[in-house]
Design goal:
The complex is a heterodimer of chains A (about 400) and B (about 140). Chain A has about 400 residues and is an alpha/beta fold. Chain A has 15 helices and 17 strands. In chain A, about 40% of the residues lie in helices and about 15% in strands. In chain A, helix 3 crosses helix 11. The longest helix of chain A is centred in the first third of the chain and has 21 residues. The radius of gyration of chain A is 22 Å and the shape is globular. The two termini of chain A are about 35 Å apart. The relative contact order of chain A is 0.17. With about 140 residues, chain B is an alpha+beta fold. Chain B has one domain: Sufe protein. Chain: A (Alpha-Beta Complex), CATH 3.90.1010.10. Chain B has six helices and four strands; from the N terminus they run H-H-E-E-E-H-E-H-H-H. A four-stranded antiparallel sheet of chain B has the order 1-2-3-4. In chain B, a hairpin with a 6-residue loop joins strand 1 and strand 2. In chain B, helix 2 packs across helix 3 and helix 3 runs parallel beside helix 6. Chain B is globular, with a radius of gyration of 14 Å. The chains are: A alpha/beta (about 400), B alpha+beta (about 140). Chains A and B meet through helix 13 of A and helix 2 and helix 3 of B.
């Protein structure tokens, strides 16, 4: 049983009391985006109601106050990820932008024939930015294989590393399989090969504690909206070395030191990467979300979510033709499945009629779908506010959908 | 609103259904009645994008009726396949002018299936209709 009061937690999410199609909402699409607690909404509203101005360049009181709130959010993100300094945190609009910025930023260091190693379980946001480097600069992308259980094939991965490897970019926790990759174990191998190590922490940072220093990575990407925070805000952690090495993508105000007619010098990281007015309120919302989630023990939350996952799995295994995707030893509470003879799309549409929100599709992971030999899967993903009642309704709903579609 | 007979017949069929389960069942049954596509007709040209499941629409030429557009289609999801069947029922065999001027929103409202037409629905219904109406416009230009 959770060491936190689930009723109290749910009471902080007004949306959870709404109905969908005449049924109470069972929201099991947390891997796509999570709902927001009142604390996050209040923090953003309070800023707008009491002190708002543009950040950094003002001389008046509210400009200073807003800048303080904004920079406090950066410090919270740094602390949350175990970064040495807030200067190692670049705000982005999400993990996708963090990955794109990193790939673009490293482009000057990539030559034709240089190898970028990713895995078959990557989200498109950790595939396509590297394809850009393949298309534009002749980089070679290599996909580390995924085993039948849905784990990264570590031996195969290790054998792919060589002097040609310039970048390794891996997901920390798969959005489809739930698989948690052993990043700390991998990091020394990548370092020994002399490559940059980028990690996509979009899912992992929501459910497990992150310490980028202990992990030994060069860059780590996270997003706010899956962490019970607002959309439009994410963060890129980068070491001093990688942030110095990266070229900026957006040019404009705030990211420069001096601008002349014939040349420009850049501001120091993180500001070098934050041209223009940043998402001030969203960053403050992210800071509030981090404060909110940190009042709980990550192990308690994990235990709670995995108990829901296992209960759902136990129930669904009895359904005719059920197939689970992702059986890694170390995994988070993501349940991807299929039913023989029933399209995941149909399953999701019928579950919606019972007020149960799940995702169906390719989950932005087409190479993984190819690896699994399926066109799509249905996915239930659990969050802190889900309950055994949600699980029972999911199981019941899938059983009904199976009957309906048989 | 007055509809052509083949559309009114469809609406009449649905008018007896009270809840979503009956409507979905009927939609699925309509999909099951579609004549199957040949294996090579499931290809990148016939595939309709913008859908979580896969949808294919095949445009047939009928030399005896050059002013009309004819379609067959398929999907790998049951409900979507039923929507394909509805779209084909409404549009296939119609003249380009009539296809362009069909008030599909009103029809889906009257079928009790309007939710499937929302832009946020990733079932590709909108994309199927756009495909056919674009074809119709192309024949007129």
């Amino acid at each position: 049983m959770p060491n936190f009061n689930i009723t109290d937690i749910r009471a902080q999410f007004p949306i959870l009391s709404r109905e969908v199609n005449g049924k109470p909402l069972a929201y099991l699409d947390n891997a796509a985006s999570a709902q927001k607690p009142v604390a996050v909404m209040d923090a953003m509203r309070r800023q707008m109601e009491t002190s708002f101005a543009n950040v950094h360049r003002g001389l008046h009181t509210m400009a200073n106050e807003t800048t303080e709130s904004f920079e406090a959010a950066r410090a919270k993100a740094a602390n949350f990820l175990g970064a040495a300094s807030a200067d190692n945190i670049v705000f982005t609009k999400g993990a996708t932008e963090a990955l794109n910025l990193t790939a673009y930023g490293l482009a000057p260091h990539i030559e034709a024939g240089d190898e970028i190693i990713i895995s078959q379980m990557e989200h498109h946001s950790n595939i396509v930015p590297w394809h850009f480097l393949r298309e534009r600069q002749g980089a070679v992308i290599r996909f580390a294989p995924v085993t039948e259980l849905g784990e990264l094939d570590l031996d195969a991965f290790k054998s792919m590393l060589s002097a040609k490897t310039k970048v390794v970019s891996l997901v920390h926790m798969s959005n489809v399989l739930g698989t948690i990759n052993p990043i700390a174990q991998i990091a020394p191998w990548v370092k020994a090969a002399g490559a940059w190590f980028i990690v996509d922490g979009t899912q992992y940072a929501v459910h497990r504690p992150v310490n980028v220093t202990a992990l030994g990575v060069d860059a780590y990407c996270m997003t706010g909206h899956k962490l019970y925070g607002p959309t439009g805000i994410g963060a890129l952690f980068g070491t001093d070395e990688i942030l110095q090495a990266m070229q900026p993508f957006n040019g404009g105000g705030e990211m420069i030191e001096d601008v002349f007619e014939d040349r420009v010098t850049y501001n120091d990281p993180p500001h070098k990467f934050e041209a223009g007015t940043p998402p001030i309120l969203q960053a403050i919302g992210l800071g509030a979300a981090i404060d909110w989630i940190r009042q709980f023990d990550f192990d308690d939350v994990h235990q709670h979510e995995m108990a829901l996952y296992h209960a759902a799995l136990d129930g669904l295994r009895d359904v005719n033709g059920f197939r689970l995707y992702g059986e890694a030893k170390d995994k988070g509470a993501v349940l991807s499945f299929g039913l023989e003879g029933a399209h995941p799309h149909d399953i999701a549409q019928i579950l919606d009629k019972y007020g149960i929100a799940v995702r169906a599709g390719q989950h932005c992971t087409q190479p993984l779908m190819t690896r699994l030999g399926v066109h799509s899967t249905a996915r239930a993903s659990f969050g802190i506010y889900n309950t055994m009642d949600d699980v029972d309704r999911l199981v019941e709903g899938v059983k009904r959908a199976a009957l309906f579609l048989s | 609103m007055t509809y052509p007979a083949h559309i009114q017949d469809l609406i009449d069929d649905f008018s007896f259904m009270e809840d979503w389960e009956d409507r979905y069942m009927h939609v699925i049954d309509m999909g099951k009645d579609l004549s199957p596509l040949a294996a090579n007709e499931h290809n990148d040209i016939t595939r309709v994008k913008g859908c979580v499941s896969q949808v294919w629409l095949v445009k047939d030429n009928n030399n005896a009726e050059p002013s009309r557009l004819f379609y067959r289609g398929d999907s790998d999801a049951h409900i979507v396949k039923g929507l394909v069947a509805i779209v084909i029922h409404i549009f296939s065999g119609q003249k380009a002018d009539d296809i362009i001027n069909t008030n599909i929103q009103a029809i889906m409202n009257d079928l009790g299936l309007a939710e499937h037409l929302s832009a946020q629905r990733s079932n590709g219904l909108k994309a199927m209709i756009s495909r056919i109406q674009d074809d119709a416009r192309a024949t007129l230009s």
